[in-house]
Amino acid sequence: MLEKCQSAKERWGGVSELIDRWLQERQDLLGLFVALPQKELGDDVVEMLRSFSQILVDYASSWHFGVYEHLLAEADEFNDGGIELAKDLDPKIRATTDTILNFNDQYSEVLVLKVQDVVHLSERLSVLGEALAERFELEDQLIERLHTAHKNRI
């Protein structure tokens, strides 16, 4: 039994650290998201927009190719219905990923912002904000169900 507990701790103990780092990425992302519309127009806005786009894609990638995979493996190990929740929520999270990638496609390579771009940027930031809010809620549901519920068993 002790061996099994040790094995579980070795397998899943690092997931908390992974999630903590990823949640810090989320905070950084939110900080830029809130700061971006407050910036005065100028060259630094373009650079901030490009940086924000990159962080946005990195955040989504970290979820899909890191956190989510670990959560699924943990859910499979504990076999307590978490896999079904993940299968239910995954398409909704992927839809927000599409919104993120669309935003990135539009703004990651911007060199100059024109007046018409600024109007569109405001609208697209609004759409992105709604998608991020939904995504954060869905991600948090999965973390709660697929990891936090198992913390005491690890």
Explain the layout of strands and helices.
Elements: H1 2-35, H2 43-78, H3 82-107, H4 115-146
Describe this structure in a few short sentences.
The protein is mostly helical and 154 residues long. The protein is 83% helix and 0% strand.
Poorly predicted sequence stretches spanning 5 or more consecutive residues: 1-13
Give the count of helical stretches.
4
Distance between the termini: 12 Å
Structural class: mainly alpha
Overall geometric form? elongated
Instruction: Tell me which oligomeric state these chains represent.
Output: single chain
What's the average pLDDT? 83
Strand count? 0
Question: In CATH's first tier, which class applies?
Answer: Mainly Alpha
Which fold does the CATH topology refer to? Answer: Four Helix Bundle (Hemerythrin (Met), subunit A)
CATH H-tier superfamily: Regulator of RNA polymerase sigma(70) subunit, domain 4
Helix content: over 70%
The SSE order reads HHHH
Report on this structure:
The chain is mainly alpha-helical. It has one domain: Regulator of RNA polymerase sigma(70) subunit, domain 4 (Four Helix Bundle (Hemerythrin (Met), subunit A), Up-down Bundle). Helices cover 83% and strands 0% of the residues. The chain has 4 helices and no strands. Helix 3 (82-107) packs antiparallel against helix 4 (115-146).
Feature tags:
83% helix, elongated, 4 helices, 154 residues, Four Helix Bundle (Hemerythrin (Met), subunit A), disordered N terminus, mainly alpha
